Amino acid sequence: MVLSRTIGSDSDVSLHSTFASRYVRTSLPRFKMVQNSIPKEAAFQIINDELMLDGNPRLNLASFVTTWMEPECDKLIMASVNKNYVDMDGYPVTTELHVFLLI
């Protein structure tokens, strides 16, 4: 298991990431923002560790949902992940594509 509970803490109040421990020496609160910043590498490792606890979509044999996409789809998602989809005036083509896909 990637994450472990801190000894003496209430259940799920704080977490300690085994792999991010070289960056973070103390446990982090689970449901609060910390007062001090942590290195970006530690934040990435903690979030990545949490996501590793999810199942592997390629091994999902219990549903008929397609869990694989063409590499071009991944590239399109990564190219547009930083767009603010709420700003319809700033991103008119994205809004048009979104409306088209909903139809």
From TrEMBL:
Source domain of life: Eukaryota
Name of the featured protein: Uncharacterized protein
Organism for this UniProt entry: Smallanthus sonchifolius
